[in-house]
Amino acid sequence: MAAQQHSAAEENKRHKHEGPKKHIIAFIFSILLTIIAFAMVAAGEVNTTFIYIMLVVMALIQVFIQMGFWMHMKDRGHVFPIVGILGGVFVVFTIVIMASYWAWW
């Protein structure tokens, strides 16, 4: 009986439900990043290089928010999906860089 109670406590600890609070905060933050990006582009008076850099930075922040809160990559036990995603990012960047070099020469 003690073993069943112990395993039930571990099961509850492992599958603890976070609730919607963090998801709502992440959603609001994602919406704010999107609004800021649209406003920067719509303004048109800002340096285009600065806009490109800021759009890439905000996109990267958006990716980490999406992966951390919606895809739950911040939780334990997601090593293989993270390695797969990083491997895919490495392959895509390699392809883009090699295609750029190929087009230049």
From TrEMBL:
<dbReference type="InterPro" id="IPR050968">
    <property type="entry name" value="Cytochrome_c_oxidase_bac_sub4"/>
</dbReference>
<feature type="transmembrane region" description="Helical">
    <location>
        <begin position="82"/>
        <end position="104"/>
    </location>
</feature>
<keyword id="KW-1133">Transmembrane helix</keyword>
<protein>
    <submittedName>
        <fullName>Cytochrome C oxidase subunit IV</fullName>
    </submittedName>
</protein>
<dbReference type="GO" id="GO:0015990">
    <property type="term" value="P:electron transport coupled proton transport"/>
</dbReference>
<keyword id="KW-0812">Transmembrane</keyword>
<dbReference type="GO" id="GO:0009319">
    <property type="term" value="C:cytochrome o ubiquinol oxidase complex"/>
</dbReference>
<comment type="similarity">
    <text>Belongs to the cytochrome c oxidase bacterial subunit 4 family.</text>
</comment>
<dbReference type="GO" id="GO:0015078">
    <property type="term" value="F:proton transmembrane transporter activity"/>
</dbReference>
<keyword id="KW-0472">Membrane</keyword>
<dbReference type="GO" id="GO:0005886">
    <property type="term" value="C:plasma membrane"/>
</dbReference>
<feature type="transmembrane region" description="Helical">
    <location>
        <begin position="50"/>
        <end position="70"/>
    </location>
</feature>
<dbReference type="Pfam" id="PF03626">
    <property type="entry name" value="COX4_pro"/>
</dbReference>
<keyword id="KW-1003">Cell membrane</keyword>
<dbReference type="GO" id="GO:0019646">
    <property type="term" value="P:aerobic electron transport chain"/>
</dbReference>
<dbReference type="InterPro" id="IPR005171">
    <property type="entry name" value="Cyt_c_oxidase_su4_prok"/>
</dbReference>
<feature type="transmembrane region" description="Helical">
    <location>
        <begin position="24"/>
        <end position="44"/>
    </location>
</feature>
<dbReference type="GO" id="GO:0009486">
    <property type="term" value="F:cytochrome bo3 ubiquinol oxidase activity"/>
</dbReference>
